[in-house]
Design brief:
heterodimer, A: alpha/beta, five-stranded parallel β-sheet, about 50% helix, B: Amino acid/polyamine transporter I, two-stranded antiparallel sheet, disordered N terminus
Chain lengths: ~140, ~525
């Protein structure tokens, strides 16, 4: 049976460390598949203007394209070059909830994320999201320092 | 809706600080007013004309009859699918793969921010002040019926919207009129769409803009003292310009966050006051029911209560006007009817909940003076409204009612009114823009032209007491309802097909909740 490891990225160097750790772990495990996930922080319960609503679909497509081209695709390419089987997913939602949901959907066995970076970043993958993930995830979570 | 121009517009006559300027401006104002009133008077009189022998405007009857027809035609959809609407707003039926698109909650909140405001605060005070507590009962009835109108128009708004290659959308009555009529092989859809668009632009500039700016100025002047309205106008216009032209979303976002907070705070304060007078809740509802059928001494008796209740509900929730259909059409759902279900919550929240809260607070704090001998309400000296403590009416009656429990609340209320006015302007700038682009086509320059015109009207609205212009703009908004409801009668069978199909799939389990 193939082990599937989910790597949660946030577009900063902490993500790089998470990838490095995942590579190391996958190398030790052997038959292993890596799933690179980038969650765009989004809530369905925010308040928007009518114009923002009208443009939302366009913005969503742009956000997904940007995250794919700048973060997920380079990570997959790096992993593939290193000889690993890797796929990527970009999705909107609550970071911790969505990362866990994707892991469960894809039958992932564990999640690896980087620790919150010191400078504070916009996507909020880490910090409280990491804490939420650690507390509520259905699979083991590794937080890389 | 927020177009109670009758409320306190007279005070806006004292606009200019300098006597010379005031005279000059007054002279110019009078000439503009007169010329405009002469030109538009017949149209305004026609729209707001009462049924012969009554004070009941036929346009309100038009909206209430339409709401009743839709209620029966869709077999009380507002009751049958109320729970389902809440599930949709909660996101129970939202596909996680669609995350990031406009959610049902966001569409509902956006549409509500365009309707919750002065209608809920001042309009209800007018209704209860003239029609007595019984007006509340009829207001609730009208709100419940209006849910079916919203359901109909918002379903069609999503079904017939335009989706462009770049991913943006445009929708609303003008699109379902032209595309829906074409689909059914009916003539005249484009003519209706053009008429609707013209009225929508005029309504957006008037009731959705000038009236709001005017009321906002009066609220600010009420706190800081009298000062020229054009100052408020320029500040507001600059902020609106930054938001709709400059794309400064942060201001809009702040407003869109603060407005719901204000709404929740308003309802919470009302609830606290009601709980503080818990022993009188039974009495208050007794007054509402007794007043609904006897009038309890108000001018016009039971009919007077009914007229006021229906009128203010229609003015507050805009059901049948078509504006909500524009707001809701941005949602990318595979099932247009789901947006109809969600939208039927709007008149419920706006009228049945918030308006009723205002009415209960006014009644329960005993702002309306009762004759101890007869138990009926005493009329004021003019005999056209109920006598109130301190003679308050409109916004000041609501303010006094809340102020009797929390002395600081009138200040919060004034801030809330200003913010509500601003959010309504932002909403209507969009509705007007969609009508404008329907008439003249999409394009940066064309859109910019409308946005600049919109900003200019903010200044005019705050600076001048252009009563006839605002009368005309109000009439234009209700003229939207004339055209819209007419189209809805022809298109409602499309909605019924959608409803039957959806209900069958929901029952069979084909449409089911997503596990979150």
């Amino acid at each position: 049976m193939t082990t599937k490891i989910v790597i949660g990225l946030d577009g900063t160097e902490t993500g790089e460390r998470a990838i490095a750790f995942a590579k190391d772990l996958a190398g030790r495990i052997g038959t292993c598949e890596l799933l690179v996930v980038y969650v765009i922080e989004w809530s369905p319960f925010t308040f928007q203007t009518p114009e923002e609503n009208a443009l939302r679909h366009k913005r969503r497509e742009e956000e997904v394209a940007l995250a794919t081209s700048r973060i997920v695709t380079p990570a997959i390419e790096a992993l593939s070059t290193a000889g690993f089987t890797a796929h990527g997913i970009v999705r909107h939602g609550d970071v911790a909830e969505t990362l866990n949901a994707i892991t469960v959907e894809n039958k992932g066995t564990q999640i690896i994320v980087g620790r919150a970076s010191a400078d504070g970043f916009k996507k909020r993958l880490f910090g409280s999201s990491t804490q939420n993930l650690v507390m509520h995830a259905d699979v083991p979570v590794t937080v890389v320092n | 809706m927020k177009m109670l121009h009758q409320l306190g517009l007279a005070t806006a006559a004292a606009l200019f600080a300098s006597p010379a300027m005031a005279q000059e401006a007054a002279g110019l104002d009078e000439r503009i007013n007169q010329a405009f009133a002469d030109f538009t008077g017949p149209f305004v009189s026609f729209i707001f004309a009462p049924f012969p022998g009554t004070g009941f405007p036929w346009i309100v009857g038009w909206l209430v009859v339409a709401a009743s027809v839709f209620t029966l035609y869709f077999a009380f959809v507002q009751l049958r699918f109320f729970g389902h609407a809440i599930s949709l707003v909660k996101g129970d039926y939202s596909d996680p793969n669609d995350a990031g698109e406009v959610s049902h909650f966001q569409a509902l909140a956006t549409a509500l921010s365009g309707t919750v405001g002065l209608g809920n605060i001042a309009g209800v005070a007018v209704a209860v002040g003239i029609g007595g507590p019984g007006a509340t009962f009829w207001m609730i009835v009208a709100g419940l019926l209006g849910m079916a109108s919203k359901f109909t128009e918002c379903t069609l708004g999503v079904k017939y919207r335009n989706e462009y290659e770049d991913g943006t959308v445009s929708g609303g009555p003008m699109y379902y009129m032209s595309k829906g009529f074409d689909e059914l092989g009916l003539p005249g859809g484009k003519i209706l769409a053009v008429l609707f668009s013209i009225f929508c632009i005029l309504g957006a500039l008037g009731g959705g803009n000038m009236f709001q700016a005017n009321q906002a100025h009066q609220q600010i002047a009420g706190i800081v003292g009298s000062y020229p309205g054009w100052i408020t106008g320029l500040v507001f216009a600059a902020i609106v310009f930054m938001v709709i032209v400059g794309g400064l979303k942060s201001i809009a976002r702040v407003t869109e966050k603060v407005v719901p907070f204000m709404g929740v705070m308003y309802v919470a304060a009302a609830l606290v006051i009601i709980i503080m007078h818990a022993d009188q809740i039974g009495w208050a509802f007794g007054q509402i029911f007794a007043g609904a059928f006897t009038g309890l001494g108000v001018a016009g008796g039971m009919v007077g209560a009914l007229i006021q209740g229906f009128r203010r509900a229609a003015f507050s929730n805009e059901a049948g006007v078509g504006s909500a259909a524009i707001a809701h059409s941005a949602v990318r759902t595979k099932e247009p009817i789901t947006e109809g279900f969600v939208s039927l919550l709007e008149p419920f929240i706006d009228t049945v909940v918030i308006c009723t809260m205002t009415a209960l607070v006014i009644i329960i704090t005993q702002q309306l003076i009762v004759d101890p001998e007869t138990g009926n309400y005493m009329l004021n000296e003019a005999g056209n409204a109920i006598a109130t403590v301190d003679g308050n009416s409109g916004v000041s009656l609501t303010s006094a009612a809340f102020g009797s429990a929390f002395s600081w609340f009138p200040y919060v209320l004034a801030i809330a009114v200003v913010l509500f006015a601003f959010s309504t302007m932002i909403s209507w700038s969009y509705y007007g823009l969609k009508a404008w682009t329907y008439l003249f086509g999409e394009g940066h320059t064309k859109e910019l032209m409308f946005k600049i015109i919109f900003c200019v009207f903010v200044v005019i609205g705050a600076a001048a007491n252009l009563g006839p212009v605002i009368d005309f703009s109000d009439a234009a908004i209700f003229a939207m309802a004339v055209v819209n409801v007419f189209a809805l009668y022809f298109l409602m069978k499309v909605v019924r097909q959608e409803l039957a199909s959806y209900a069958a799939r929901l029952k069979s389990g084909e449409i089911r909740k997503f596990g979150h």
